[in-house]
Records
---
Amino acid sequence: MKAIKNINFGSVVVAGIVAGYLMYFTDKMFAGMFGLFGMFPGTDNAWWMLTHHVESIIFALPFAWTAIYQKLPGARWVKGVVYGFLWWLFPFFILSLIAGALGAQPFRMYVPKSAAIFFTGLILHLVWGFFLGVVYNPQEAGK
């Protein structure tokens, strides 16, 4: 329970919302550039926007957990970029397990635009992690 007490919940919620919005904004700002981006449906879909920001907060919570935060290297922004990279890598690992069990069927939906989805997802998760690391303030934890 000590690790949970050291999480600055207010800061991680704000960081999750800011990082989630800037991830979305980056996708919209650069939509179509180099054949990348434009993955998100946007503000026309209020339910998607709500779930995206809730997920951003939920996925930010482990970042603030001291057992993870203290093991990530470097300054706050570097910690965030590394964490964002890990969140980008994690679904590929899970999808690989599922694909192995299903004879690689899940990968077929990504084949037509595989490189664009691959690099767009990477860049957006690095942006999300960067802003998560910049905005989250662990020093206020426990006060």
---
Amino acid sequence: MNRYETVFIIDPDISEPDQQAIVDRIRSLISQHAGKLLVFDDWGVRKFAYEILKKKQGHYIRIEYAGDGDLVYAIERFFRIDFRLLKFMTIVLEKNVDPDSLPAEEPEMSFTSTISPVAPAAEEKPEQPATPETEVTQEPETPEEAPEAEASPETESETKES
């Protein structure tokens, strides 16, 4: 059994249920071929460096799993057939891995809950009191207090004529 990493890009224009169906299909392929899903990492929608199939962005997902070559063949066959997938790439991380020594997948999370726009409150840093160096107050200058060096050339010529 080998350890693999696959990164694939889903068309961002398809609906959330369709994206979830793709992810569910990959999970079922892994379980059907006696594989073990180790990591499911949703990177979200990102902009491409160049257009792919006339798209400028895509939804990136990375998975790590353990299985045989038949599993990789089945997953890549699914990727080639499904028009909703724009690109994919699979690499071998380790060969001849003991499946019992590999960590199990993290607790089951839904596809949509992996993208959180708001950071958890526990990770917020407490506010530190401001130091005197950072507290610089600057009062706005009034036109009367402005130095004459900053006066425009038009005002200088008017003052010379009088």
